Amino acid sequence: MTLLLSTSIKAQDIFDIVQYKARGDGKTINTKAIQRAIDDCAAKGGGTVWVPSGTFLTGCIYVKDRVNLHLSPGAVLKATPLLSEYDKKTMALVCLKGVQNAAVTGTGMIDGNGGSFSIVEEAPDRPYVLLVEGSQHITIRDVRLYHSARWTLKLFDSDQIIVNGLRIYSHVNHNNDGIDIDSRNVTISDCIIDSDDDGICLKSEQPGRMTENITITNCVIASNCNFIKMGTGSLAGFKNIAISNCVLKAAAESPFWKWHKIVKGVTDTISGIAGIALEVVDGGVMDQVMITNISMTGIQTPIFMRLGQRKNPVGVLRNVLIANITARANSLIPSTIAAVPGFQIENVTLRDMVLQHTGGGTLEDVTRKIPEQETKYPENRMFGHSLPAYGLYVRHAKGITLDNIRFTLAGNDARPAIWLEDVQGISVRDFVPGNGANPSTTIRQVAVTDFRYNNVWEQ
Fold it and tell me: Is the pTM of the predicted complex or chain greater than 0.90?
């Protein structure tokens, strides 16, 4: 037969779901009809299962080896709310489980109909829109994924995955992550994501299996939580990750989170939490991470890095480069690099950044004792709604480089630009604090050793 994604597919390799009695009337449940088309296609060596224009109500369908599920323009696969149409062990609308050389393509829509399921955070009886699990050589291209009841696209324990050109919009239920990655050798590119929960989230939820060799590029990401995140699940960890050329912005809507009413100092009616959140709190290792060329608006905190401890021993967070960043933040919570006592985040470079902050910090913010919160769930506000610096707070770290960093302030701030506490080895070069600041010192040091600086502008 022809190759799976060939542009010259033969007629006999196309399996139209309408020919299997599927009806696109938005009322008929078509789970069995669509699955018959997929099974027949796989049994005959593979090809394309064609979803024509229309709204096809369905439960869980399983894509098989060498099958391309293709949604034509105007095609909608819509989730039925009948739980009997789903596999309780899978809980996904479209599932690729234990398959190879398969794809989901086309410019049609997979509608999770998420508002028709339990609207309760962490409720188990809610399907993902699209799940890839235990699979290899998978392509997901151009489809629209809408209104998930849970995470939208989950890539779990899989290898060699290409995700390109997706349009994700999901704001009808809790835990509406855009893309969750717990796999290896994954490329995400040219996607537009607008999600209520984390935009793109890397996880590591199986001991001994790293999430590694991941590239994410050329994406527009909107979120009411974290925009680009690694964690919270970090049992094995993350290695060899490259993220570049992304734009982060405020979500189109925020039905569940009213941060301006929750977090003191946040004034925007819609905003996300952290632009970049790197979290190791389950004992894993984060190593060799590079994040470059990111523009952020609609965020509370530009960068949040946490080495913590929930139930497992403290892990490792090291060798991170974050460069070429512009950000406009909307809170009193600055960028944060924080481990727990006795451990250190190591070898982090922040380079070529312009970060704008609101100002408004007080002397009380400077003198407030900051709790360690060793076992608390990691989030930018875990230490309180402010910190004793307006630009960067670093505690329990080693080998930190700040190179060509410029802060600007929209209003006066009594806090120093940078707070360093229990830091061994820090280099600061070409640093300019906010013009509106009035701190007692530009960089406050507490238990800092081996501090080097060059061309630091002083107030």
Answer: yes
> What Å distances lie between residue 314 and 117, 185, 197, 286, 343, CA to CA?
37, 26, 26, 12, 8
Per-residue pLDDT reduced to its tens digit, 155-207: 999 999 999 999 999 999 999 999 999 999 999 999 999 999 999 999 999 99
The DSSP 8-state label assigned to residue 41 in this structure reads H
In eight-state DSSP terms, residue 376 is: S
- 326's enclosing H/E stretch is strand 316-329
390: Cα within 13 Å, side-chain hemisphere: 36
Nearest-10 Cα torsion for 140, 144, 146, 149: -10
Q: And the tokens for 73?
A: 């323009």
Contact 380, 262 (CB under 8 A): no
Contact 188, 181 (CB under 8 A): yes
- The torsion defined by the Cα of 181, 182, 183 and 188, in degrees rounded to 10, comes to 10
Q: Which residues contact 299 (CB under 8 A, 6 or more apart)?
A: 227, 248, 271, 272, 273, 274, 275, 327, 328, 329, 330
Euclidean distance between CA atoms 367 and 324, whole angstroms: 32
In angstroms, the CA 8 to CA 271 distance is 46
Q: What is the CATH number of domain 11-197?
A: 2.160.20.10
Q: Which residue has the tokens 């339990």?
A: 118
The angle subtended at Cα 273 by Cα 272 and Cα 276, nearest 5°, is 105
Give the Cα separation of 75 and 78 in Å (integer). Answer: 10
Bridge-based pairing of strands 335-338 and 316-329 is unpaired
Prior bond of 232 cis (ω within 30°): yes
Residues 204/284, Cβ–Cβ less than 8 Å: yes
